[in-house]
Design a protein that fits this description.
Strand content: under 5%
Order of helices and strands: HHHHEHEHHEHEHHHHHHHEHHHHHHHH
Distance between the termini: 20 Å
Number of strands: 5
Largest sheet: 5 strands, mixed
Structural class: mainly alpha
Length: 585
């Protein structure tokens, strides 16, 4: 108790290394029989995916260990001087300990160093009812006030928002404009299972390239096939990124793309030494420019192979986050007014804090509605932030806004969309534009790595969509003109350089505005914001007809949609939970 009076609540943090160590220690305790299944938690001791519930871990591990150390919390037992927290973890204690730790470690933001987690931060052997009697000055609130973002950990039993303390934390996150993220399971195990099939498709496509016969007939056939694949890659990549919402098509698109891109790459490699393979019908272009054109094709082929490989990781992340969203809806009525609390005193205190100085029933309803909107945005988008809520107010559909766009694609396109620096000395007209594109790309990466996590997520989506929608089409059209002999190579590379520079400028501008700022651009804002995050046919249709709407209309329609959606979910009551700990989260 003395240690907790000396160290401020916002310093009761744990690190990623602490959580990894806790996982190992719990696993050892389960294996040696120190942690046993109970009637209320009949976990399988052989299970290392979910494990014992947090309730069981609290009673059979955390309390005994911290009691022996002096009755401080587990966090202060590990760090007696405290660690300043910059991440707040909210959960409902019903998940398994391994499930909880794995989700937190997977979703831990890179910019965060120490996390506040109630089961580890609070002294479980002491009575802290006096500390939580005023919710807004409780350890929960003091920690949440200073953090960068809040991490919501769903569980397979019941939505955390059926618990009033979790709902109250959502209220504070809304009040203090915190970025709220949904934690999810690691995609890497599933990716390792899916990777062999993708690599096999790449290899089979590559081997097929050697089936083409030698001689003029085979050469002509390969040249035609390479041209067709070059133009077919674009709609395939576009459909995978913007249209794929079904598991089957997403997977099929990646496998087909891996096969075709592998074949395309090896066809180019097989004919790499033949300048005539890369020239147009007239064959009159300078050798220096043809080398640039050949390099562009090879870079594009390599980028498409890598794209379809990493797109499998994006697919797994996309559907993992969608699953976590369904877990946040289990038993949740759609409003925090139905959230339960085992302590009637805590319940009264929390509602007094939420209602604040609201004098009328309408004002109290408005406060609850705004918190409900925050939770609804979190469930729909996989995250919630002030900017995202601004976009929702402008009528933008934010479903799956935090899903599956890989930074690997940004790295690849950064290289393939930029001009070849080795040849800038040759291309006099394009020198200034080329270096401008290089400078903008460097600035973009600096902005990206120094932005908040919600802005980085939006930046990835903007980058990919601007490249696919505004940069690559001019490339394809101009390269077609070159193939037909309608434009010289010098004009082609100049247009490439201009479109890349304009594209990078658009990406920087939209990233700076963030999704909320983009949505508020007069006339085209909602449409443009919708286009930047659209995925799936319904979202694309909305992008075509999105217009600003009245905010009160949005709120009422959201309320009705939440009520309709909740009727299909499982009913989960937690009032009679016999394992509810005295410290609720």
């Amino acid at each position: 108790a003395e240690l907790h009076r000396k160290v401020a609540a916002e310093n009761w943090g744990v690190t990623k290394a602490d959580l990894k160590r806790l996982r190992r220690d719990v696993w050892k305790a389960v294996k040696n029989g120190s942690i046993l299944p109970t009637e209320l938690d009949p976990f399988d001791p052989r299970d290392d995916i979910f494990g014992p519930s947090i309730y069981t871990i609290n009673e059979q591990y955390i309390k005994p260990v911290t009691a022996e150390a002096g009755n401080m919390s587990w966090a202060l037992m590990k760090h007696p001087k405290g660690l300043k927290v910059d991440l707040f973890v909210t959960h409902a204690w019903q998940e398994g300990i391994f499930e909880f730790i794995d989700k937190v470690l997977t979703s831990w933001p890179r910019s965060c160093h120490s996390a506040w987690c109630c089961m580890l931060a609070n002294p479980q052997n002491l009575d802290i009812s006096s500390l939580i009697s005023c919710p807004k000055s409780s350890p929960f609130a003091l920690a949440l006030r200073v953090v960068k973002c809040m991490l919501v950990v769903p569980n397979r039993r019941l939505s955390i928002y059926t618990r009033l303390w979790c709902a109250y934390e959502a209220h504070l996150a809304y009040e203090w404009n915190k970025v709220v993220l949904t934690a999810s399971a690691s995609p890497w195990a599933s990716f390792r299972q899916a990777l062999p099939a993708v690599l096999l498709c790449v290899v089979l496509g590559g081997l097929l390239a050697f089936a083409w016969p030698e001689g003029p007939v085979g050469f002509t056939a390969m040249k035609v096939v390479a041209a067709l694949l070059y133009y077919c890659m674009y709609p395939l990549i576009l459909s995978v990124i913007l249209y794929s919402q079904e598991q089957c098509w997403y997977r099929s698109g990646n496998l087909i793309g891996a096969f075709l891109s592998g074949h395309y790459l090896l066809v180019l490699a097989r004919n790499y030494h033949l300048s005539s393979f890369f020239s147009n019908e007239s064959g009159s272009d300078d050798a220096e420019y043809l080398r640039e054109w050949r390099s562009t094709h090879i870079n594009f082929a390599v980028s498409t192979v890598l794209f379809f490989i990493f797109s499998e990781l994006d697919r797994i992340r996309y559907f993992t986050l969608a699953h976590e969203a369904t877990l946040l809806k289990v038993g949740y009525s759609g409003s925090i007014k139905d959230a339960a609390c085992s302590s009637s005193t805590d319940c009264a205190n929390i509602w007094a804090e939420i209602n604040g100085e609201a004098a009328s029933e309408d004002e109290r309803s408005l406060i609850v509605a705004k918190v409900d909107d925050t939770i609804r945005t979190l469930i729909r988008a996989g995250m919630s932030s002030r900017s995202l809520r601004q976009a929702v107010e402008e009528g933008v559909c934010v479903d799956n806004a935090n899903s599956g766009d890989s930074i690997a694609f940004m790295l690849l396109i950064s290289g393939t969309s930029m001009p070849n620096l080795e040849n800038l000395r040759v291309l006099d007209v394009e020198v200034m534009t080329g270096w401008a594109c290089v400078a903008l790309t460097i600035i973009l990466w600096i902005v990206f790595f120094n932005s908040s996590i919600d802005r980085r997520i939006f930046c990835k989506k903007v980058f990919i969509r601007v490249i696919l929608i505004f940069v690559w089409p001019p490339h394809l059209i101009c390269s077609l003109f070159f193939k037909l002999g309608l434009t010289p190579m010098t004009h082609l590379l100049w247009i490439f350089s201009i479109s890349n520079t304009v594209g990078m400028s658009i990406i920087l501008a939209l990233t700076a505005l963030h999704i909320g700022g983009v949505a508020r651009i007069p006339r085209i804002g909602p449409w443009l914001a919708q286009l930047m995050i659209a995925r799936g046919p319904s979202a694309l249709r909305k992008a075509c007809k999105t217009r600003p709407v009245d905010r009160s209309t949005v709120a009422s329609s959201d309320d009705s949609s939440g009520d309709e959606g909740s009727s299909d979910e499982l009913d989960g009551s937690t009032d009679d939970d016999p394992q509810r700990a005295s410290l609720e989260d």
